[in-house]
Write a structure and sequence with these properties.
This protein is of the alpha/beta class. 35% of the residues lie in helices and 14% in strands. It is built from eleven helices and six strands. The strands form two sheets. Strands 1-6-5-2 form a four-stranded parallel beta sheet, sandwiched between helices. It has a two-stranded antiparallel ribbon with strand order 3-4. Helix 6 crosses helix 8.
């Protein structure tokens, strides 16, 4: 059940406003339900692409750092992270990824974002739901997505992070809420040099004023590059009282690879 129906949202988060959009079943839910039914008769591009790949599976937990998401070799992980994040204070507590930002996943993400193949959002969300494990806070969990500015969403037609987050919500039974919004347009992160990306997103994300005291938040995005956008979102969520944030992404750009600079993080 979506928070807001039958007063559930007020009981879970008493200081949070209930909006008609939250209380009403999203049209995206209806479209995705129809798409799942049609997939059985007419395979989508997702099914076709998966059939062309020789047994692709998401990364196992030990293949990457659970703090920053960077790929890790045997024996390279420690309780305090990996060589890329050790000694660094991160704004989230855990990170789950499906893959390095490399073939074939990079092509699938580009199909989703720039080829209007939005059904990939459901696939990535479903696979992430399988990998997230059990929440730290028990049943006090809410799922949200990195927000997209209305201008970019109008051009693309959807927010791919939201599609993934809604699928995680459906698969795991955790409520989805649009906790964040973009209050100003910013250039896409890949068009900004790495040293300026934090400044580029500063003050561009704002929380909607929900009381998250005692809650764990699963924050969903498609790709993590420098982590500046995710960090900006985490600061807002922590400001609303979230006690733990679990980042879930389809892919992480290799900090030592060229795609770290070229990946289409927005």
């Amino acid at each position: 059940m979506v928070p807001g129906e039958s007063g559930e949202y007020n009981r879970a988060m008493p200081n949070a406003p209930v909006s008609p959009r939250i209380a009403t079943r999203s049209w995206l839910d209806r479209v995705r339900s129809a798409a799942r039914w049609l997939d059985r008769a007419w395979p989508t591009v997702v099914a076709s692409e998966l059939a062309r790949v020789d047994h692709w599976e998401p990364d196992e937990d030990g293949a990457y750092c659970p703090r920053c998401g960077a790929s890790a070799g045997p024996g390279s992980l420690a309780p305090d992270g990996c060589v890329f994040c050790r000694g660094t204070r991160l704004p989230w507590q855990r990170l789950t990824r499906l893959s390095l930002y490399d073939e074939p996943v990079d092509g699938w993400l580009k199909q989703m974002k720039f080829g209007r193949q939005w059904t990939w959002g459901g696939y990535f969300g479903d696979r992430l739901a399988e990998r997230l494990g059990e929440p730290i806070r028990g049943d006090r969990v809410v799922v949200t997505a990195v927000p997209m500015h209305w201008r970019r969403r109008w051009r693309r037609g959807f927010n791919q992070a939201e599609l993934m987050a809604r699928e995680i919500s459906r698969a795991r039974g955790w409520p989805y809420l649009p906790l964040l919004k973009r209050q100003r347009w910013t250039p896409p992160q890949p068009s900004v040099v790495a040293s300026q990306r934090e400044a580029n997103v500063r003050a561009s994300v704002q929380a909607r004023g929900v009381d998250l005291a005692g809650y764990e938040v699963v924050l969903v995005d498609d790709i993590k590059t420098t982590g500046s956008t995710l960090a900006a979102c985490c600061r807002e969520l922590k400001g609303c009282g979230a006690v733990s944030i679990h980042v879930a992404v389809a892919a992480v750009a290799d900090p030592q690879g060229m795609k770290f600079q070229r990946s289409k993080a927005e």
